[in-house]
Target: Dehydrogenase/reductase 7
Amino acid sequence: MSWELLLWLLALCALLLLVVQLLRFLWADGDLTLLWAEWQGRRPEWELTDMVVWVTGASSGIGEELAYQLSKLGVSLVLSARRVHELERVKRRCLENSNLKEKDILVLPLDLTDIGSHEAATKAVLQEFGRIDILVNNGGVSQRSLCMDTSLDVYRKLIELNYLGTVSLTKRVLPYMIERKQGKIVTVNSLLGIIAAPLSSGYCASKHALRGFFNSLRTELATYPGIIVSNICPGPVQSNIVANSLTGEVTKTVGNGGHQSYKMATSRCVRLMLISMANDLKEVWISEHPILAAAYLWQYMPTWAWWITNKMGKKRIENFKSGVDADSSYFNILKRKRD
Ligand SMILES: NC(=O)c1ccc[n+]([C@@H]2O[C@H](COP(=O)([O-])OP(=O)(O)OC[C@H]3O[C@@H](n4cnc5c(N)ncnc54)[C@H](O)[C@@H]3O)[C@@H](O)[C@H]2O)c1
Model:
């Protein structure tokens, strides 16, 4: 074979690879590093077995699914949220669907806003399992209300729960990880911790604050390469997040999450989270388009991002005011095109 032909063949292969990656990106449901890790990286089944994992917000949605997938990997689990009976239900399902035994799962009720209880809770985990390999800061609530209709109590609650509650628990667990020079602190942030949307000013603020906190903390822990600080940033995922969202008043939640078929399946989001944990990724974006594309625009072309966000945002407010889920309409158009 002549050199010229060989070069042409190589160029063709490179072009094909580029096209495949471009198609992957167009149909992506995660950022490129994450998808690369899914394709070529370490498997959760190899990396996450025999670990002690503490999941907050484990009674519903992403945290609940995380409990099911982690239990199949053979980890020791600590399940925390406020409602014990819901945690017991999740524990029973974990035991039914995995090889874990009763002693491998600790149900530990915890209110993230009750920061005075966090030290005792941490000690209870250490007493039961002797160590904490992974803390998954997942518990949190969202918001659906316009700024001018929202009381200051709602903003206070979102910061106390999503931000301060998470920071407090992390500060309790971190000294034990530093002592062992290893551990993973995985925080379920949101793409709304990077981009912004109307109806969620308090939620966005709490998630932006979390991202700033953990990015700064990571730099302080640079001398401990065995401690991984990871921000998971999902877009819309099927869960109770909308139903449980705060409205203009702190005592009122949305109550009805509406139909969710347009959102990413909880199981897919959690699988990508596990891949991120197995590969020690520091920040991952988990979402389908158009929110994923919007995140890239916000990162690289903020002026265009604002133009599009204002258009999508206007629609979001119209949807909300007419009683349908804020994001449903533009997702539905894309789903119809795919189906
Ligand atoms: N579902 C989404 O579309 C989405 C998108 C981006 C980020 N997130 C984030 O994912 C995380 C999990 O949310 P989800 O979607 O599973 O919603 P969800 O409402 O189904 O679950 C939230 C969990 O947090 C717990 N929780 C609420 N208040 C608490 C408190 N004071 N103390 C302890 N636990 C408390 C709830 O009991 C529940 O277990 C949240 O941090 C949320 O911000 C969700």
